[in-house]
Amino acid sequence: MNSIKIILALTLCAIAQLNVNADNRSLKLALEKSIKNQTPVFVIVTNKSTNNKSLKQAYAVIEEAKSEIGNVNVFELDKSSPKNADFVQKWQLNDESLPLIIALSPKGNYSGRIPAHAASTDKLVKLIPSPKLDEIYTISTNHKAILIVMGSRTDDVKAEVLENCQKAITKMKGKADVVNIDFEDTAEHDLLLSMKVNPLREKVITMVINKYGVKTKVFKGKISVDKIMTAALNEIEESCSHGSCGHQH
Question: Could you give the CA distance from residue 198 to residue 185 in angstroms, rounded to a whole number?
């Protein structure tokens, strides 16, 4: 979950609803169009000293990755241009090796970065989040707690947990949102593994992440509305230690 937490933190300050100035309006509009079309984006970050050879290499590896990802939009961003200062700040572009490839999800969420010289098809594919992980990023962007409910789509206990999550969200006046992950959804297997959930061994798991992107509780099986609310409204800003965030029955 550490990698998810890091990206959630960046997501809070780096997402697609960008307040940019008129000079870089074209890139802003291009990103907005990509979000509307649910198309992932790679932004190649350069500066005035970036040479053509390294830039071509960045485009080449992205082109190879397209064969697995599908439709992807690619844009360039000159880090050294004053007109792009907003993007530099939002994406925390510091002294990293350039060209740098930044990935944005189909929903416009920041989902990772890699120096072009270290990029490969496999690494770029992994930068594009699954649909449910993209939902998690979006909820985090809205500064809400995240209720991740995982289990078989036909499990009656899962249906009850989802119902209680909705009741809790209503009582919390919308301070949380639920992400429903089916064990049968092959697109989410890597996400489940990253959260150490084995669909072959587990039944219903509910993971609660607070508005700071910190996992506060992991529950097994049925869970009451009050317990959901307590976990969701927990405002700790650092990861739990000594097992305090372990499975609860």
Answer: 13
- What residue type is 45 in one-letter code? V
Q: How long, in residues, is the chain?
A: 249
What residue type is assigned to position 221 of the chain?
A: G
How far apart CA 34 and CA 133 sit, in angstroms, is 18
Q: How many angstroms separate the Cα of 26 from the Cα of each of 30, 32, 170? A: 6, 10, 39
- The predicted model scores a pTM of 0.81
Cα–Cα distance for residue pair 247/13, rounded to 1 Å: 31
239 and 214 Cβ atoms separated by less than 8 Å: yes
Amino acid (1-letter code) at residue 177: D
143-175 pLDDT, tens per residue? Answer: 999 999 999 999 999 999 999 999 999 999 999
| C-alpha count within 13 angstroms, C-beta hemisphere, residue 86 | 14
CA atoms within 13 A on the CB side of 39: 17
In tens, the pLDDT along 211-241 reads 999 999 999 999 999 999 999 999 987 654 4
